[in-house]
Amino acid sequence: MPYLEIVNDSLARIEVRISGLPSLFFDRTNNLSLWSIVELFLTAGHPPENVKFSSRQDLYKMGHLMSFVVQMSCSLTPEIHLISKYVKPNIRLAMSTSLYHIGKSSYSMLTSMTNVETKEKLGEFFLKLVIVDRTTRKSTPLPKTFVENFRNIPFLYSNAPYPIPVIPEMPDTIFAMTFTARHSDMDQNYHVTTNRYVQSFTDCATEAANDGFYKHFNDDMCRYPVEKFDVTLLGESKVGDKLRVCTWQDEVDVQTIYFSCFNGSTCVMKAAFVYGMHVMAPKIPPHYL
Deepest in the core among 75, 117, 163, 178, taking most CB within 10 A? Predict the structure, then answer.
């Protein structure tokens, strides 16, 4: 992870500065990878050593509880796609995360990302988590002690619900690929990370594009900028599970690509990515110029 500094750590809001991006954050096209963008947003909302924000540490101290991501929604500006391994790799990012809503067994947060120097907004990220009992693997109400911490922050209970992604049912004609979940794909709950799913969706999309399955898109999908994405998590996958990723294109809007991931007959994740219509300019190492 790049150097991260906590600027402000309060109960309902945390602000961090991130300086410099390591080479592993960039994909085979030298662009900032989509899964690394997800990692940046997730880390900004739960940075190491944060003490006050969201009282999540109090939840983790209760050994029988864990949190599952159930929704991610993100919009990205063109400026974020100007960052590459050889252009602006030392960029300084300002990321601000606020709690958005607290429900019966879930809570959500909203993160913004900006360029420290130019003040340009680079993206916005919504994250919803559900509290789950480790034994039953089912959702459970938030502890009263946790909810009590936020009784004096009324907007957490009055914010309008964040839009729920609408992802259509999978049609008969699809493109599919399979992969096996490995130990390195696991998170601390020992199920496949959201980043790994996003990576597999990008791989599947590239295979589909190279196979001529999509209209318009016919190149490595890492070369097309993602303008927004919505992800809904419906289940979990563990080490050794063989997962099938399916993709198809919207019948009207060619920019929208859909994905469903199946663990056996169970759909564990659905997603919609909106891609830009044109490939990004090649990011060429300086010593090749």
Answer: 75
Q: Which helix (H) or strand (E) holds 106?
A: strand 106-115
CA 78-128-200 angle, to 5 degrees, is 60
Reduce the DSSP state of residue 151 to 3 states and report it. Answer: coil
| pLDDT for 289 beyond 60 | no
Other Cβ atoms less than 10 A from the Cβ of 147: the count is 17
Query: Which residue from 102, 7, 119 is spatially nearest to 56, judged by alpha carbons?
Result: 102
Give burial (CB, 10 Å; 0-12/13-18/19+) of 240. Answer: exposed
Amino acid at 93: L
What is the rounded distance in angstroms from the CA atom of residue 250 to the CA atom of residue 256? 6
Dihedral sign for Cα 14, 16, 22, 26, please.
positive
Instruction: Please report the domains of the chain, with CATH numbers, ordered by start residue.
Output: 1-162 (3.10.129.10), 165-289 (3.10.129.10)
